[in-house]
């Protein structure tokens, strides 16, 4: 059967989706399927999506036989293909790789279902709980889809709905596609959803920390500018505040890391409140002058061979 290698995409039986293809072998495989194979084509995902010349060892062993519903040429010379997944199949080998891939496949058996009604209910509730947590942290999900998934009471259909519409890694989707047990598939989905929830939560924490750091830096800069403007209005540019502002300007120009810059700014703020002739003010000035006179971020190439 003509085969098409997918990049970063896993299709499941029953799924309808479109994608663009540009490689000659992919376009040839689609044309062969339409003209000589009743529009049937085997879709299988690449293990390494950066590889152009695909070999059997760079393809997952489980794929889906799909029906090509429509094709469309795009302005950039690619081909947009609309397909519907029909059934899963095992890749036994590649018998031809030019001018298109020809696969030797074996249809996989239907999904085994040994779960009791109570076990199915328990899995459905667990999946709904994990999905709710994921959705609360992913506000881009359409409300109709969200409600439809929570209203689904058939375990197999629920798994399909989530796999079709929730972001999961290619490796995780491939593991679900290869699984022949409803129990195992449900267990894997719970595991993958929980992992995605943890990742999204971690991303939010990182973004919040970055935002807080940026807000603090912007606030400190704004307050310093306000103090500088007040000093100008009061004609106090010969006082310790003016001197401290000059040091702050030099510090910002040096491009220090955040911790170093924060420490030096604190020394400048201390200088603002000291008497210009005090011994402590002299110590702070000496410290700042010594630090700022050092060749920060300036490198020379020296010979280390003695």
Description of the molecule:
The chain is of the alpha+beta class. It folds into three domains: 2-107, LON domain-like (Archaeosine Trna-guanine Transglycosylase, Chain: A, domain 4, Roll), CATH 2.30.130; 117-203, Methane Monooxygenase Hydroxylase, Chain G, domain 1, CATH 1.20.58.1480; 236-293, no CATH class. The protein contains nine helices and six strands; from the N terminus they run ββαββββαααααααα. Strands 1-3-4-5-6 form a five-stranded mixed β-barrel. Strand 4 and strand 5 (79-96) form a beta hairpin.
Please supply descriptive tags for the structure shown above:
306 residues, Archaeosine Trna-guanine Transglycosylase, Chain: A, domain 4, Methane Monooxygenase Hydroxylase, Chain G, domain 1, 3 domains, 5-stranded mixed β-barrel, 6 strands
Question: What is the topology?
Answer:
Layout: E1 2-6, E2 16-21, H1 24-36, E3 40-45, E4 62-73, E5 79-96, E6 101-107, H2 117-136, H3 143-151, H4 155-165, H5 170-178, H6 182-234, H7 240-254, H8 258-272, H9 279-293
Helix pairs in contact: 2-4, 2-6, 4-6, 5-6, 7-8, 8-9
Instruction: List low-confidence stretches.
Output: none
Q: Would you give the CATH topology of the largest domain?
A: Archaeosine Trna-guanine Transglycosylase, Chain: A, domain 4
Main sheet: strand order: 1-3-4-5-6
CATH superfamily of the largest domain: LON domain-like
Nearest-integer average pLDDT: 86
Helical proportion? 40-55%
As for the number of domains, it is 3
């Amino acid at each position: 059967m003509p085969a098409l290698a997918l990049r970063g995409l896993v299709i499941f039986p029953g799924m309808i989706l479109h994608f663009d293809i540009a490689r000659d072998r992919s376009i040839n495989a689609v044309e062969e399927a339409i003209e000589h194979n009743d529009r049937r084509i085997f879709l299988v995902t690449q293990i390494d999506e950066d590889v152009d010349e695909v070999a059997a060892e760079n393809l997952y062993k489980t794929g889906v036989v799909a029906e090509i519903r429509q094709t469309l040429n795009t302005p950039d010379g690619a081909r947009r293909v609309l397909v519907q997944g029909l059934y899963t199949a095992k890749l036994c080998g590649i018998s031809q790789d030019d001018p298109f891939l020809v696969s030797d496949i074996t249809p996989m058996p239907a999904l085994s279902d040994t779960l009791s009604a109570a076990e199915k209910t328990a899995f459905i509730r667990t999946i709904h709980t994990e999905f709710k947590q994921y959705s609360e942290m992913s506000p881009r999900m359409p409300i109709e889809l969200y409600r439809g998934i929570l209203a689904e009471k058939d375990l197999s259909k629920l798994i399909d709905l989530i796999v079709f519409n929730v972001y999961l890694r290619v490796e995780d989707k491939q593991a679900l596609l290869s699984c022949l047990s409803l129990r195992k598939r449900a267990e894997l989905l719970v595991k993958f959803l929980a992992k995605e929830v943890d990742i999204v939560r971690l991303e939010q924490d990182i973004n919040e920390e970055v935002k807080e750091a940026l807000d603090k830096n912007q606030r400190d800069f704004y307050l310093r500018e306000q103090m500088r403007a007040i000093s100008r209005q009061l004609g106090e540019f010969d006082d310790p505040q003016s001197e401290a502002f000059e040091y702050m300007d030099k510090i910002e120009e040096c491009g220090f890391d955040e911790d170093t810059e924060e420490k030096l700014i604190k020394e400048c703020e201390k200088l603002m409140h000291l008497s210009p002739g005090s011994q402590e003010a002299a110590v702070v000035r000496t410290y700042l002058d010594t630090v700022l006179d050092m060749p920060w971020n300036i490198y020379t190439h020296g010979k280390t061979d003695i």
